[in-house]
Design brief:
globular; Rhopdopsin 7-helix transmembrane proteins; mainly alpha; 8 helices; 227 residues
């Protein structure tokens, strides 16, 4: 059952990545496109980190393979947390008149983390813990607030119901992620493994990504109309 739930978790994240990338390609709003791409990178990096822990180590694998998988998982986990934080800031500032371009922000953070990791000045477990609390938790909370704020704005302007539901679902999924994987790491409830909560959260985020990308339809149809 654990492997099935873990597989569902990865598939949901990969589906989420595919939907966000495919539907944001034609966006004319650069900031909105940046928002969805940041969320897409979070999803694919998180899926990659989970894949490194999926399955058992082969008996004839090279001796360096466990360390390689461990280091890869750490880098992908840190990257996913940073891009979630990037997404949270981006969606929260979407409607501001004056916006800051945060495209270089994730790369600078990742570069700083890799320098600390390579130097060995900070324990690996502390790096992962710091990225989880500082970026994953805060990014998910900022994303939740941004989704609620955008929902209220779209509701006042008679936004499409599917988009409104998508924003609520995305906000709920991010809030769940903040407490299931961000705040104190994966949660445990007697009788339930962490995989059940992770799979449910990933499924909610994947479903929300299908609906929330409806924000791009107006821009895409307008572009097609000029062809």
């Amino acid at each position: 059952m654990t492997y099935i739930l873990h597989g569902i978790y990865i598939v949901c994240l990969l589906f989420m990545f595919s939907v966000l990338i495919a539907r944001s390609r034609g966006a004319t709003d650069a900031h909105l496109k940046n928002i969805f791409w940041a969320l897409a990178v979070f999803a694919i990096m998180k899926a990659g980190a989970s894949l490194t822990a999926f399955g058992r180590q082969a008996g004839n694998a090279p001796p360096y393979m466990p360390d390689l998988k461990g280091n890869t998982r750490i880098m992908l986990t840190v990257l996913s947390n940073i891009f979630l934080f990037h997404f949270g800031i981006s969606i929260l500032t979407y409607r501001l008149v004056t916006r800051i371009d945060y495209k270089i922000f994730p790369l600078l953070l990742f570069g700083g983390y890799m320098m600390l990791y390579a130097s060995g000045s900070v324990e690996t477990s502390e790096l992962v813990k710091t990225s989880r609390i500082s970026f994953a938790y805060n990014g998910a909370i900022l994303g939740f607030v941004g989704c609620v704020n955008l929902y209220l704005q779209k509701k006042r302007t008679s936004g499409r119901r599917s988009v409104l539901y998508g924003l609520l679902m995305l906000g709920s999924g991010l809030l769940a992620y903040a407490f299931t994987e961000g705040a104190a790491g994966p949660i445990r409830v007697e009788g339930w493994g962490t995989e059940a909560f992770e799979a449910a959260t990933a499924a909610l985020l994947a479903t929300a990504s299908v609906l929330v990308t409806g924000l791009l339809k107006k821009e895409t149809s307008r572009k097609i109309g000029f062809i």
